[in-house]
Amino acid sequence: MKWFLLFVITLGLGLAQPNSTYNHFRLPTALRPQKYDLRVLTRLENPEELRFSGTVKIVIEALQNTKNITLHSRDLAFNESQITLRQISGEKKTDNCVTSTVVNPTHDFYILNTCEELLAGHVYELRLIFSAELNRQPEGYYRSSYVDPAENETRWISITQFEPASARLAFPCFDEPGYKAPFVIALGYHKNFTGLSNMPVKETKPHEYLADYVWTEFQESLPMSTYLVAYSVNDFSHKVSTLTNGSVFRTWARPNAIDQCDYAAEFGPKVLQYYEQLFGIEFPLSKIDQIAVPDFNAGAMENWGLVTYRETALLYSDAFSSLEDKQHLSNVVAHELAHQWFGNLVTMKWWTDLWLNEGFATYVASLGVESIHPEWRSKQLESLSNLLTIFRKDSLESSHPISRPIEMVSQVFESFDVISYEKGSSVLRMMHLFLGDEAFRSGLKSYLERFAYKNAEQDDLWESLTQAAHKTGALAKNFDIKTIMDSWTLQTGYPVITVTRDYTDRIAKLSQERYLLNTDISRVHRRECWWVPLSYTTQAEKDFNNTAPKAWMECSQTGESLPKTIQDLPDTDQWVIFNNQLSSPYKVNYDAQNWKLLIETLNSEEFQTIHVVNRAQLIDDVLYFAWTGEQDYEIALRVIDYLQRERHLLPWKSALEHLTLLGRIVRPTPNFQSFKRFIKKLITPIYEDLNGINDTYKPIQAQDEILLRTTVATWACNYQVSDCVPQALAYFRSWRSETNPDEKNPVPIDVRSTVYCAAIKHGSDEDWEFLYERYLKSNVASEKLTIIDGLACSREVWLLQRSLEMIFDPKEVIRKHDSAWAFKAVAYNEVGFLLAKKYFMENVNSIYQFYYPLSKTMSRLLPPLYDQVSTRGEYNEFKEFVANSQESLKGMDQAIQQTLEIMLTNVQWRERNYHKFTRAINQLL
Per-residue DSSP letters for 335-369? Predict the structure, then answer.
């Protein structure tokens, strides 16, 4: 048999047909797949030769006459002598064949030129035989491994990861989301393994000629996009859960981690049933599997019926995982299962509307988790966290719209970011709040029913929601969702609303402009307009629960902001607050008198009369305005000075995110001492109120209280508040004295990250070695990440350098998918920053090779670099480095642009605000 790799053939040289010059990034539209029959044989016995081979039969309908078939394929070898093409329906069934093939490597096209023209209305069957090595990188059809502790042997499994465009690495296909088709999949493998795919097993029978091998054929799938196809050959164990509708629900993991599946096996079915009620549509498959994969580049993947996860996102251990780990797991599982409707049942036509999948899954996941764990009060925290994230990212000129044109498949990867996920979620939450529950749910249900098993775009969703909103009276007939929501999804950024009150006439004039961090950009560029739902309340009313808009800021037909006046506001002795519970993603700046009134309330016993989310909002807004010069630091720091009496998580989260950024810029300066004293002043009262880091967590049910304690503990130990460091060292010594430290750990789970960090920072080389030994022996992925963070707290240059070398070691003591986490842990350490920056700049080429061909993953290494560069010299040095390293930073254009812009805004802050900031701090000490 003749097997050969498809070498790159320049288009036009291989063939004379005019079609061979086709060079558009999208597939031609002449053909459409109707069904795939895919058989894949996987060989896992020999670690030196991990391969797969397969046959695919694609039933293709011709929509127009054409002389070629253009498919996607990358890194597959074909047996071209065995290609067959036959007509299976239509007039005069004639034989057909393939005369020649050609490759377009730019777009991964495999073009088959046919003997006879394919005729519109006729149906054909194309059969291809292919093979490849199981990928060494986690995309396409790839290998993953774990060590069996009983035998001390490496065990290999195979798994797929196809989103957004890697199905073409596993089998030739029409690899675009708009080409939905049913799949019949059969997997061949050694009988000691298990085969899993999207659908339930139809039958298993012996392989026709390989001894001890079997073929497992799965039931025909519902129509789906290629990126949702999934299969795996593994020797995992599983837990079965029950679903009321009779569907089978299983949770899979390596055998030595199956005891960590209990929580996911209990939570998954609950959230699936919640979505059936929310959408009013039953889950359409008769089974669903979720599987924890040892090597996984994404967080998780929503493949229909076979959802894949990183171990940290699916496995939970009562003895080793924190409550924060549990919430992360719940969010990820809820997100992936929401996709079974949003994304899988109804899929975007093209990657432009990726946010329809990701924003929706992010938003409804927060509803799902809140429904199942109301005691966590996680929905408020989730929505605030999303907003805090986007207020930073989307204030960059180099940000992008939620719905962005995609003109090369390589650009799709850049869209998997906070704008698609967190901003997408935030604008959907805004819409849910201004529409109300009835219109929102009714519009979603009609959209999902109308486009089930099909593809849709955002305008289709707007249409369904507008109809529902008009029907229920949730929206005036002269308003439509498309006009409102396009202003949020089709343009970059978000507005700052300036509220200028006239206290005599009791009115306020409102204006809007885009908020940008970069103060070098002229305000002329900020004249975009958003349709803004205006909710507000007054000091007398204090009605923060009413998030419905009392008025709208509207845009003219030419896109200019129309002037807005709000009537009947109170006198000079009462504040007004806009954007109740931060129901929409915008910032609000007030006149000096309104800020003065707010500061008076915050710094009085009445501070809790302002809703907790709005207290977080006031802190976030005023610190941004001080950063960009719209407010004085005297005002901003007087706002946050009240935190000494604050005992809720959300305002602290808001303040500490800003203080973290400011602290990193001030840290290498002579005035850091004043900053430290200010932090101690804020943190000491709450740290002592909460009883420090003593083990008083067990009776607490509300997760936000536990998260507040752990957050405060981390800051207290970092800034050596009260007894935090001595207490942490005592816990660590107690752990070190245990005879079996891997089984018994006396450190309270929720403060382990704080304790490990303090112990390594203030401890000895032996402490570091002890913790490193625990890392090597740990069987719990989330605990390993906690230990990685702790090890990076060392102040010993040689230990930090050793950590850096270890991260990018091909022997992978640290799994590749944890490498960015480990790098960030070292780089955020004050001693580690310069080492990490130097390491990155000197080794950028080998780091590029380490991640290749998933080199975009490198962009995850950039945040600690851009957060801590704040001098003109460092900025210029990094700019020069970027200019000289184009080859090693390929495919990271957006990330590099954003990195340079954030560095520049740090430089601007230091040059403009450093002295004002330290002067304002000293006034409060």
Answer: HHHHTTTBTTTEEESSGGGHHHHHHHHHHHHHHHH
**Which residue in 129, 7, 27, 13 sits closest to 68, CA to CA?**
27
Mean of the per-residue pLDDT values of the chain: 94
- CA atoms of 311 and 359, how far apart (whole Å): 23
Contact 452, 346 (CB under 8 A): yes
Query: pLDDT digit string (tens) for 214-260?
Result: 999 999 999 999 999 999 999 999 999 988 878 899 999 999 999 99
Please give the average per-residue pLDDT across 411-426, as a whole number. Answer: 92
Whether 743 is a known active-site residue: answer no
**Whole-number Å distance between alpha carbons of 212 and 206:** 7
Output the CA–CA distances (angstroms, integers) from residue 221 to 55, 141, 330, in the order listed.
18, 19, 27
* Claim to verify: residue 567 and residue 426 sit in the same structural domain: no
Amino acid letter, 595 = W
Q: Coil, strand or helix: which one is 739? A: coil
Which H or E element spans position 683?
helix 672-689
Residues 446 and 552 in one domain: no
Question: For 43-54, what is the HEC assignment?
Answer: ECCCCCCCEEEE
Residue 253 lies in a domain: yes
Q: Are both 397 and 428 inside the same structural domain?
A: yes
Q: Which domain holds residue 826?
A: 816-913
| Tokens 């919430």 belong to residue | 327
H or E segment to which residue 719 belongs: none
**How far is the C-alpha of 847 from the C-alpha of 861, rounded, in Å?**
10
Interatomic CA distance for residues 653 and 711, integer angstroms:
8
Q: Is 509:489 a contact under the CB 8 Å cutoff?
A: no
Nearest to 137 by CA among 817, 599, 905, 888: 817
Cis peptide before 585 (omega within 30 of 0): no
Q: Is there a single domain that holds both residue 176 and residue 293?
A: no
The letter for the amino acid at 143 is R
Q: What pLDDT, in 10s, does the model give residues 822-838?
A: 999 999 999 999 999 99
Q: Distance between CA 14 and CA 70 in Å, rounded? A: 15
Total domain count for the chain? Answer: 5
Whether residues 87 and 210 fall in one domain: yes
* Choice among 311, 336, 358, 646 that is catalytic: 336
